[in-house]
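User: structure tokens for this one?
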Amino acid sequence: MAAGRSGAAWGSFLAGLGSVVSLPLAVYLTRFSGRYDLLHAGFAIPVAVVLGFASLALARQARLQSALKLTADHRSGLAGVGRVLGFVGICMAATGLVALGVYGLLEYVGSRD
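Assistant:
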């Protein structure tokens, strides 16, 4: 099995992809639901964070596995892509959390009048 093609590298890529896709997918699905509002898409934030950190951990594991091989290819691209996707997913979740915080603050200030 070539470096970058290990199970940890694939897991990192898939977890990172799930992390990046979870918030936009939750927002998109609220458009077609009569029971859920846009605010309910915030429940996807913990999912994005968990998948993002899992992606980072799996990317590190894949990099360590690649370093231990005698025929290690130091360009393990799939794990690197997974690491970047995981980081982007965590940043998107942090942005969503800030947006929910600002919304909550504005609702609080608006209800005081």
